[in-house]
Structures are given as structure tokens and as C-alpha cells.
Amino acid sequence: MSGKTIASLITLSMIFITAGLIYLNEHAVIRNFDAYVKDKIEVITSSLSHEINAHLTQGEIEKVIEFTRSYGKFPDVKLIAIFDSAGKLLCLIGDSNEIPNGEIATYKSEMLRYIPEKRIYEKVKPVYSQNGKIGTVFLKIEAVPYLEKIGTTNLFIFTAIAILVALGFVVMLTAFNRRVLKPISNVSGLMQDIGRGIYNVQLEVPRSSEIYEFAENFNQMVKLLDEKERRLERQKSQFKTIYEISRLGLEIKSIDEFFKNVVSLIRNEFKFLNVLYFSVDQSKKLRLTAVSGYLEDYLDETYTLEAGYGIAGSAILLGDVVVINDVSKSPQFIPLYDAPIASEIAIPIRKKGKIVGVLDISSEKTNAFTSEDVRIFKTIAETIAVILEKFDSTMENIKLLFKLETVYKLTRDLVLERDVDKIFENAVKLIYSVLGKKDLVVEIYERVGDLLVMRGIYGTLKESLPYEYAQSINDGLIGKAIRERKLIYIPDLILEPESKRYYKTTASEVVIPLIVKNEIIGAINCESETINAFDNVDLLVLQTIGDTLSIAIQNARMYHQIFESESKYRAIFENSSEAIFRIDESGKFADINPAFEKIFNFNLNDNVNFYDLFVSPDVAEKFKKEIQSKGQVKGFDAQLKNKSGNVLNVQISLKKSSVKSYYDGIIVDLTEYLKILDKVHEADKLRGLAQIAGGMAHEFNNVFAGILGSAQLIKSKVPKDERIHYWADIIERATIRGAELVKKLIGYARGGKFRISNLNLNELIIDALKKIQTAEGISIKTEFNPGIPDIAGDREQILQVLYDIILNGIEAMEKGGTLTIKTEFGWYSQNIVDDPEFKPGEYVKVSISDTGTGMSEETMKRIFEPFFTTKRSLGKSGLGLSMAYGVIKNHNGFIKVSSSFGKGSTFELFLPVERKKEEIIEPAEPAKTKLKILIIDDEEFLRMLLADLLHELGHDVIQAGDGVEGIKIYKEKKDEIDLVILDVIMPLMDGFETFKELKYLNKDVKVIFTSGFSPDKKVQDLMSEEKNVRYVQKPYQVEELEKTIKSLFAEG
């Protein structure tokens, strides 16, 4: 076979192969396009079905129509028709003549068909819910633009290829077959790849090859096919992304979570470097809400941008899409963390015409965003905007329902309230809590004539109008709302000429007039520091509250009118401190007053019978017979029990009521009165014991004075080695011990304080503890308040009280334990100390607690009695606590004791804060070593003994048996007498009257008062007023007597 023949055959073969490839490619493209169109149809119909199912069943047809119209923007969508279950057309996008007559509603299953003569796809999809078929979707997609373009281009390209190949083979027949055959075989292989849909292939031949131009055209054709294929895939991804975003919009629960899913979806679908979403606030500041990609490890929600800054900020400032295909040439670009960004696009998201966010997408490639990308991203932005508006609408409805439910619950109580003042007070708090806004003040005004008087105010603004602030009914926005009888809302007060602002920071205000039966009764006024602070939901809620509040106020006023007529008859019943009640003939309660409930601790619902309250059934029977026979009982003494079982001592009066078969009665609770009476009797008992003890102490001191003085005289006259000196010393020590016991009796008898000074109780407690040796197993814990003030008192007496009580606590803990001593300072009222004499005021409080055996109730009643003790075996006199009681009382203080048997005891001492200026008198040697002293005392042996003691000290003594005799002697020898020692208690003329006469005779007379009692207030006041007055308590101690005399005659 000749070469020409072979070449011809090869040429024919290539022509047929080329034609076959054209046919194959045409069908492959059609099939590929067919799959793309079907996917698109499925996305649209599924999305529409889901929306119909979600809203059509709820009757929300407008939302279905709104969603359907968003798909009318696609150019290849020729027709969308929505039918209900009866075949009625609900929504139509396109020409109604394109809808087949009467057959759409009959379809029970999906139908997809392609009409070649029209080159149109038709899809019918019935929509079902749980209750059956609810509608039908009919869709038409036009395929003409794609098929015509693809078919013509492919036919032209492959025809050109066939011609070029044929020409090539003709040339090859006349040239060198070897340089043609091999490239042709390569073309055959590449054609097969193209037939399988592989477009990333290239025909490589030398530039000198006879088919080089053919190869270039072939490669250009393959490149065009590859670009079309990738464009179709990208469009498919775009539609899928829109579908997925729409699906996310149906499941949205949180805006932030929604955008996190959106940016992740876009990045995963389009393989961009970064996808970010910024939310935009009122000041146009951008806050990062979601990020996906390279930057998600570097940025978080704290990242912000200002408007105009960066590409995203520029989109906000311009209000349009900003595309930068080479960021290296853009001054707006902000490099972040070495991210390899080459191009960037920012798309604003609008909601109701206002920019609320920016979608920012970046790529590592330059020129990454085409005009097709811009178009699809705008579509995505519009889809997101629809979702946000829908979400806002849903949330607004939820918010409204929640607020209305809250308002209903709260206003229900408001309507039932009968106190007008409380209605106002509760209403302002209700409004404030329901609105839930910061920087808000709520005011409610009541109309009083031509004035509006404030009855309630609540809020957080810095300034505050005074309660009952009044303004004219015609002033400001409130006056405008009242005149127009409607709600007035000013979102920005700067623009309102009638505004009258009390609060300087107020930016927006809403006023709701309160109207009842066409009459203005007041107004609600709400002010905020924020512009546009109140939305439609807030206004609806405020109007609802205003209507309810008007009714509540009117109801309360009507109630008060009725109540006032009844209150004068009910006042005694309700306000009486005595228990008032009504019973029927069987004893069942018909009514009881609050005092009855308080005393007996039960109410009518407890179903208690009156006669069951009696402790004694016999007494109850006696009372019942008396009331039945006489019709009334007055002042009947009985014991009743309350709900807790406590016995109450009461006095009952009962009388037959004017209402048939009922009895009205009153019960006077005498329980507390009897307790107080017991305390008074107890106090009288202690006072009686105190008087006896005081009298005994005085007499004993006189006796001890004689014994002690005699013993001291004997000791001074007898050598120490004499046996009589030894016995005199024993007498002296025994007498001093007896005098100490008498001192305690005087303390109990409250016979006065010896020496007043400013005392710090913390220091005294430490001194008392130093004198005590604790046994093994006993720990002492102190809790001192270092800031307690000083008190005025006798140091030795207070120290002895602390010592006795601490020792008493230690001895109560025979098996070990903890003694806690605590000091406090504060204001204490009468209910703290159970003592009728307690006076409220500032006290220093000392608490001494032990964990010992505790005391029984019977023991606690007697612990302050003199000579009462539970420790006779320890040699205790029983005067410690009684002395403590007397000393604390004498210092105007109080003792409170609490104890539980087996759990320890606590003593609480309350000492008043009284600061006294101390006088410090330094003794000095007297100018005269020998004095003439006048002794005035009715006790002869004490007078003689004192004279002997003074003689021993080197002084001359004159004696007088009473005040009258003493005055007579002093008149005669006043120029000789240097000092008068004067007994306080004497017959005829006591020591004070005698001193008055002496003072009259000589204003500079020097006097030492003496008594078996400790100095009372009268003596103390006299010593503080007179510099020449001193006091010595019997029995006399020589050293103390000598020291006192020296203090009066100190030099200087």
C-alpha cells in the first residue's frame, strides 16, 4: 500500500476520530451540565419545602413569599409557583401562562423532566407535614444559555481541530510522515482523557513541528474546557454554601454561634486562607465575632477595628463591597501575624438598611476574587441579612411574650394590692425590672388638682428628684401626653422643643398617661441616658402596665372608700394588743385578731376549739357553765396553752354577741406581767438582803475597828519576842480577813465605790489572770477589743469581781475545758439585758464563758444571794457572786447570766462608759508634826481606840460623842483644832449636817469622814468639791490613817 493511500486513510481516521470526540465531548458536557442543573433544582426545591413546612402550617404565608422571592434573583430561574394542598396558587415568580392547567396539584410524588424542544427543566415537589400534604412547589429552570454556548463552542473548536488535523496530514503526506505520526498518536491519547473529563492536559510538540500551531490551538481549547469545568464546580459550591447557610439560619439559636458556623462553612467550601466576621456597634466600631483559618490561633473576640481602618473598616465607611486583589498595593491593608495574605475582600452585611456586620475573606493568591465571586458573596450577604432579620423578628416576639408574661404575673399582684402608696412603690420597681435597662429612671405621678405629684421613683441616674416633687399638669412631655391622652415617645430629646429635663444626662423619654373612665389620674415617665433606648416591645409593655396600673389605682381608691367606713369599727379589733375573738356556742372560732394569732401562734385554719386551750379541763368546764348560765364572764383567771404548748396566765372576759349564737371575748395575757412582777419581787428581796447585809457590815466594821485598833496598839507596846505579841498578830490578821469579808458584804449592799479612777478592762482582766493558777487541762482564751474606752470605777472592786467570776468558771471545769474572756464596746438597748432597770447607752461588755458543768434553773435564781454557794466543801463563803452583783450595780452596770446544765455558763458584765478626771494627790511630810485633832463619833470604844492610835502617832486628841457636842467644842477651840475626824452615821445630827455647821464656822476646816460603809455618791461628790475633805473606812489601819492625814497637810 502506497504512502499516499496510508496518509489518506490516516486522515480519514483522524476526521472520524475527531467527530467521535466532538460527539463524545458534547454528550459528556451535557451530562455534566445535566447533573449541575439537577443539583441546583434540588437545592432550591428542598429549601422552599423546608420553609413551607416551617411557616405554612403556622399560617405565616408572608414569610414563605418573602423567602421565595430571594430565589427570583437567579437569571436561569424562569418560574417558581407555590400551591396549597387544594391547588390554590399562593406565590408566583414568573409568567402564570407557563403553569400547566389543573395538573400540578394532582402530583403525589416528585417529578423532574427535561423538555428538549423548550430546553427547560421542570420540577414538581409535593410538600408533606405530619398531618399530610400541605402544598406543592413547581419550578422551571432554563438550560438554553448554557447548552447553546457549550454546543456552539465545542462544535467550532472540534471542527477547527478536524480541519487542522486534515490539513496537517495532507502536508505530512508531502513532508515527513515520521514527524507527524507520533504527535497524532499523542493527540489520540489526550482526546481519550478529555472524553473521560480530564481537562488538565497539554499537547507538547517542538516549535518546528508541522503541527505546532495545531497543538497550540488544541491546548487553548483544553484550557477553555478546564476553565468552564472549574467555573461550573465553583458555582455548584456557591449554591451549596447558600443552601447550607439557609439551613443554619433555620436552626439558629445564637448569633455568635451562627457566624462561627458560617465562616467555617465558607472557608471549607472555597478553601480560602481566612474568613472573618465583624459585628458593628452603634459607634461603627467593629468587634470580631467569628474567625476561621490561619488567624484563628491569633485573634479572639477582643480584637476590634475602627471604621475606616483596614479593608473591613473601609467597607463600613464606604458602605459597599471592597475588593483588593493585590494587598501589597493597598494602603488600607493591615498585616496580621505574618499571615500570607495576597488578596482580600470585605462585604458589608445590612439589616433593615443598616450595616450590622462585615464578612472579611482573604486568600494567599493575588487576583483571587472575580466579578462572579463578588456577585455570589453579595448573594450570601443578602441571605445572611434575611436570616438576621428573621432571627431578630423571632427574638422580638419571644422577648415580647416573655415580658408580657412577666408583666402579667407582676401586675396581677399589683391589681390585688389595696395600698395606693405601695402600688406606686411596687409599680416603679416593676417597670424598671421588666425594661431591664441600665441608666434608667422610672417615675409615677398622681394628679392632684392642676398639679402632678410624684408618688414613686426608682432608677440608677445620678440625680434624683425629691419624693412628692410636684409640677404643673401642662409642663413638658408629661403635660403633652396628658393633653393628647396618648403615649408620647421621644427617642432623642435634643430634637424635642417641649422637653423639660430635670436629669442633665437624659437622652430619650417616654410618657404614658394613666386614664380611668376618660379621666386623667396620673402618668408614668421613663427617662434614659441612651438615645433610642426604648423599642416597640418596650412601648407595648409600658402601655400594658399603664392600663393595668390605672385599674389598680382605681380599685385601691374604691377599696379605701369602703375600708374607711369599716375601719373605725375594725381599728380596735385589729390594733388591740389584747387577744380579741369570736366563737360559736360549741367553742369554734369564727374570728380572731392579729394579737390573738401572735399570742397563741395559730390562725383560723388551724381548726382549734376555744375550750381545748384550757390547761385544766375542769376549769374549762367551769367557764363553760358560767357563760351558759350568765351569758357573760368578766375577769376569769385561767391558764391557757398556745400552739407550742407553752402555758400562759390569762384573764378572760366573754359576752354573748348581738349576732345570734356567737360570743365575743377578750383575753389579757398576764404571763409577761407576772414574770416582771416576779423580777420586781426578786429585786425587792435582794434589796432587803442588801440592806440587812449593809447594816450588819457597818456594825461589824465598828466591832472590827475596835479589835483591829486594840491589836495594833498591843503590838506597838509589846516586844516582838513576847508571846502576847504573837497572839496580837493573829488577832490583827483574823480581823483584817473579817474586814475583807465585810467589804464584800458592803459591795453586795452597794455601799459605794472607794476610789474612782479611769480603768481599762483589758488591763484589769490581765491583772486578774496573773493572780490565778490554772489547773491541768484548762486553757484560757482571750478575745480583747483593743479599742474599748476606759470606764470610771474602783479598781480594787472591779478587779475582785473579775477575779471571782474567772475563778468561779475555772472551778466549774473540774474535768478541764476552755475559759473564754471577750471584751466588746457598743450601744446596747434594753432587750439585750433582762433587767427592768437597764438604761440604753454605751457600755463596755465583758463576757466570761466556761465549758464546765453549767447551772440548773433553780441555782441561777439564787447565785447572787449572799452566802449561797454550791462549794461549801471548798471553804467558800458564798459572797463572791453576791459581791460582784453589788459592785457592778453600784457602778451603774448590769450582769447577765446564761447557762445550760452540763454545757457551761456565760457571765456578761455591762459597765457604762463614764470617764472621770483623776486627782493625783502626792503625800508630803506635814508642816506640823503634832496636830490637835477633834474626834466626833457616837461609838465610845471606837472613839477611845482612835484617840489612842492618834496619840501613838504623836497627836493631841479631843473627843465628842455626837455632832452637837462636836460643834460646841469646835466653836470654842477652832483656832486650836487642826483636823476633825467625823463619823458619817450618828444620832441627832449626822456627819453631813455636822460638816455643814463646821464649814459655816470655818470655811477651811479639814475633815476626814469615817464609816463602816464604803463611800457613797454623796461622800464622793463632797470629796470632789472640797479639797480639805478625805475619807477612811472602818476598821482603821494605822498606815492608811497616817497617809490620809499627811495628804491633808502636805506642803505646797
TrEMBL record:
It catalyses: ATP + protein L-histidine = ADP + protein N-phospho-L-histidine. It is an enzyme of class 2 (transferase). Residues 932-1049 form the Response regulatory domain. The modification 4-aspartylphosphate is found at residue 983. It comes from the Bacteria. Residues 178-230 form the HAMP domain. Pfam families: GAF_2, HAMP, HATPase_c, PAS, Response_reg. This is histidine kinase. It comes from Candidatus Chryseopegocella kryptomonas.
